[in-house]
Amino acid sequence: MSSEVVLITGAAKRIGADVSRYLHGLGYRLVLHYHRSETAAIALQAQLNALRADSVLLVCQDMTQLHEIEAMAEQVIACFGRLDGLVNNASSFYATPLGKGTPAQWQDLMSTNAAAPYFLCQALTPQLALREGAIVNMVDIHAEKGLGQHLMYSMAKNALATLTRGLAAELAPKVRVNGIAPGAILWPEDPLSEQQKQQVLASIPMQRLGETQEIAETVAFLLQGPGYLTGQIITLDGGRSIVGLREA
Question: What is the CATH number of the domain that holds 138?
Fold first, then answer.
């Protein structure tokens, strides 16, 4: 596996960084995308390259600049001369209460969560098809029904879910496309009160947050196979989405 190359977007921090560490530990070479988190990206690259020299390279791109995505894809392929996997993890996330949403927020949320993955997949498809590679999209358990005060974000993730299934049909049999719909994995960067945290935990049958390691393991599973698995979105939420079914 040491020759295989994976691009991870939004790789510098949080879930993206832990997915990067895990895949690197499995032997992948990595192209790590970042936008504003340059210091964190450089530190992560240095950490991983210290473990295995010249195994990690960086690309910087503002994912709202959709006209630049094709050039970014060319830069990614030039890093190692090949690409075997793509993890669309980059995402803007913040509240947009109805009545206060702005066109700028719409552009940001829709671009980072849906449009940029579309154009990146489109640009990288020839290389991924050549390698019979795989795409993993980071969706969200709220994509279907929406998250309160986050309607724009939820709409964008719903579009990403549609992209996942549609691409799986269009790119088969050469490229497999699947997704992960995480539940509560990390607390938001905007702090929650202890009461809010307890409300979240009370809604999860597993009675805990998920771990980034569990996301990383699922990403690796979807990248590696089974070869017959495509067009699926795996819900990784500790059972949160089935609570209503249990109570019905």
Answer: 3.40.50.720
> What was the pLDDT predicted at 216?
98
Interstrand relation of 85-88 and 176-182 (parallel, antiparallel or unpaired)? unpaired
Global pTM value: 0.94
Give the domain range for residue 176.
5-247
The catalytic position among 22, 118, 153, 228 is 153
CA angle 2, 232, 20 (to 5 degrees): 35
Examine the residue annotation and report whether 153 is marked as an active-site residue of this protein: yes
- Structural domain count, the chain: 1
